[in-house]
Every structure is written in C-alpha cells, then in structure tokens.
Amino acid sequence: MKDLQSLIAWAAQHRFEKGEKPKLRVSVSGGRTSMFMAKWCKDNLSAYFDILFMFANTSREHADTYRFLEAGDRAFGLGLKLIEAVVHRTEAVAKACTGKIVGYRDLRKDGSIFREVCAAYGLPNQTFKLCTRELKTNPMDKYAESIGFGDALVAIGIRADETRRVSRSATKNGIIYPLADFVPTTKLDVLEYFEQFDWDLRIPEHDGNCVDCHKKSDRKLQAVYIATPEVFDWSMRLDDDFKHVGPNSIGGVRVDEPRKRWRGYRDTRELLEALRSASYHPLAVTNGGCSESCEVYETEEVA
C-alpha cells in the first residue's frame, strides 16, 4: 500500500470482516527518524490499528541512544516494548533467537548480547548478515508472534530521501514505510522537528546508533577512530574470540579461513592500519540524523 487512504480503507475492511482492528508493529531503532515515525503512527493510525511499538536492543548501541529512546517513549506515550535477543544454541546447531521483554533499568549496554550472538553464529559481515537478523528481526518477530502480533503489518522508519534502503520484499513481508509513502519526510524535516525538545538526540553523525557498525564506510569509521579509538578495542576482542566460529565464504566460495567482519575482508587490526594511513579529510562532527540506524528487513548497505 503506497498511499494513506488505501491503508485506511484496508484497515476498515479488515475491521468489518474480522470484528477487530488489524494489528500494526512499529519498529523503533533508537534514532530520530524512527521516533518521528512512531509519533506519527500513534497520532494518525491509532484509530485504525492496534499498535505495538517495539525496540530491539543489541547491547552495542551508542549510550545516548538509550537516553533518547526513554525520553521519546515518555514524551510521546508510546508504551514501547524493549526486546532483547535470547540465544538458543546446542552443541550442533544454533537456532533462531527469540526475544524477551526488559525494562529501561535492565537494558544490557555492555555488548554482551552481541557477543552471545557471535558465539553462536560467528562474526557478522556483508556475507553473513546475522547481526540484524538475530539481534533485531528474529527476536521482534518471535515476541510479536507470542502475543498475537505475528500477522501484523510492520512499519519501518525509512524516509522519502533514503528509498534505496527500502526492502524489495516489502509487500510480501507486510512492511510499510510511512515516512516514504504516506507522509513524505526528509532528514531536514526530522531534524527541524526535534529541535524543539531539550531531550533531542546528541549522537555525532559518524557514530550513529551502532558506533562500530561493519556497514559503515572507511571514512566514517576513520572519524569514529579519531574521536574514540577505544571503541575498536572491543572489536578486536570480538575478532579474537569468534573468528573461527561458523563456516566462512568469500565471493560465494567456501574457504577454510577465519571470518572477518569489515568490508574488503579485513579484521579489525587490518582495518585500523588502513584508517591510520588513509588520507581522508576528517568528517565534520555534527548532531545529524543518525543515518547509521539499522532497521529490520533492510536490504541496502549504508555508506
């Protein structure tokens, strides 16, 4: 459904046939755009849908993500459900993660959930895209199914100016993009909206929600390294502990080599060597639109 009137008409028909509102899951990543979308959905779709607002904690979010998330949840009255992945691993196989509900005071912020997923599946990279799948998508899907939201539509916070990130399987998976299709919204719109709040997000543009995300370009990673080099100490430990977990392939060919996390098939030490010698001009440090937020069902890389 590419327009709001069609969505509302579909919801009305569903309610007429089923005797209840259809269900909608709103995925909140922790950035401004998804919080803006959540507020819009609450204000404009609550009359037509039974809405579940959800956030999946990777435990590796920028510290300010958690503050902003709680402030926005309270200000907008979302009743946000905080989900954390639960790894199910036997000696022979790692099954899909499920999710559990936690409170703001109990959110894990030490990278431990990320490490548990890597221990079960190996390091994530551009080939093994297990990061979003097992830390976000599967836990949110499994929890939603457990409370009767398994067949709900899913609203994702992708704007009109970043449609390259839209999933090709959106219709098949019941995904909608309110800020791209129903109320076309740009990054500038979102930035201007949050300027009115003293609890606005305070994350530098190059950091994003996940500071050391392997999807980032070298230039953005270099900006992170210049500002906070200690971030990559954790990444090196991740390499050392889990590089031999799970199979590996390069260019679609199975190889008997350790898995590496970064673009160009590099481990963290190789990445840092490249960043130290690169001649990029440092990125300006701004409080931008959290362009590195990681949405469920995302298909395109983030540069």
CATH level-3 fold name of the domain at 4-194: Rossmann fold
Low-confidence stretches: 284-292, 299-303
Radius of gyration: 19 Å
CATH class of the domain at 4-194: Alpha Beta
Helix/strand class: alpha/beta
Give the CA-based shape: globular
Strand content: 5-15%
Task: List the secondary-structure elements in sequence, H or E.
Answer: HEHEHEEHHEEHHHHEEH
Strands in their spatial order, largest beta sheet: 4-3-2-1-5-6
Major sheet attributes:
6 strands, mixed
- Find the count of extended strands (DSSP E, 2+ residues): 8
Portion in helices? 25-40%
Label this structure with key terms.
303 residues; alpha/beta; Rossmann fold; six-stranded mixed sheet; two-stranded antiparallel sheet; globular
Describe the structure concisely for a colleague.
The protein has ten helices and eight strands. With 303 residues, the protein is an alpha/beta fold. The chain has a domain at 4-194: Rossmann fold, CATH 3.40.50.620.
How does this model look, in words?
This protein starts with a helix and ends in a 26-residue tail after the last helix. With 303 residues, it is α/β, with parallel strands linked by helices. The protein has a domain at 4-194: 3-Layer(aba) Sandwich (Rossmann fold). The radius of gyration is 19 Å and the shape is globular. The longest helix has 17 residues, at 130-146. The strands form two sheets. It has a six-stranded mixed beta sheet, sandwiched between helices. The protein has a two-stranded antiparallel ribbon with strand order 7-8. It has helices spanning 4-18, 32-45, 63-76, 112-121, 130-146, 178-182, 187-194, 218-227, 231-242, 268-277, and strands at 23-27, 50-57, 81-89, 94-102, 153-155, 175-176, 249-250, 253-254.
